[in-house]
Design brief:
A seven-stranded antiparallel sheet has the order 6-7-5-4-3-9-10, with no helix packed on it. Strands 2-1-11-8 form a four-stranded antiparallel sheet, with no helix packed on it. By secondary structure, the chain is of the alpha+beta class. It has one helix and eleven strands. It is globular, with a radius of gyration of 24 Å.
Length: 170
């Protein structure tokens, strides 16, 4: 009777360990799936010259993309906020500019205000299929998704023509 009880306890312990291992495996798979973006999109940065991929991160429609620049002449910060669309387009919602200088718009969007020393334009609502720029390791401060920095200007080649776009996950 004692040996039978011992075998039953061992079998129960083994079943519990298998269940725990399966639960852990499911947790890992779910975590990895959530990292891939809820709808299978990726934000990529590639060189315009030869299409060499420099960055690829999972994103989802509705995510907020933020470009943080430093104006090359006036040296003030410039922020652009985009919403990522399900079709891969970038929808410019808001711009925050730390001053005025060459190339700075003066009448953008449906509203303009001054907040914490920034000129803030809202209601811009312009759609772009991609975002192209000549990278400057000194001017591009950060590219962020939902407040998390995913790249800095120093991560990319200096004075290289780049393109950022949202693509379906491969």
């Amino acid at each position: 009777m004692t040996a039978t009880r011992g075998r039953r306890a061992l079998a129960a312990a083994a079943r519990a360990m298998v269940a725990a291992a399966l639960a852990a495996a499911v947790g890992v798979v779910m975590s990895l799936a959530s990292c891939a973006g809820r709808n299978g999109l990726r934000l990529v940065v590639e060189t315009q010259r030869d299409g060499r991929r420099l960055l690829s991160v999972p994103v989802s429609s509705g995510d907020r993309l933020e470009f943080e620049w430093i104006h090359s002449v006036e040296r003030f910060p410039w922020y652009e906020y985009f919403e990522l669309e399900a079709d891969g387009s970038l929808f410019l919602r808001e711009t925050r500019i730390g001053g005025f200088g060459a190339g700075v718009p003066y009448d953008r969007g449906t509203s303009a205000s001054v907040e914490d020393g920034f000129v803030v334009y809202r209601g811009i609502d312009e759609r772009f299929p991609s975002y192209r720029w000549i990278n400057s390791s000194t001017a591009v401060a950060a590219i962020s998704i939902n407040g998390t920095v995913v790249a800095r200007g120093t991560d990319f080649p200096h004075h290289e023509a780049l393109e950022l776009r949202v693509t379906p996950r491969r």
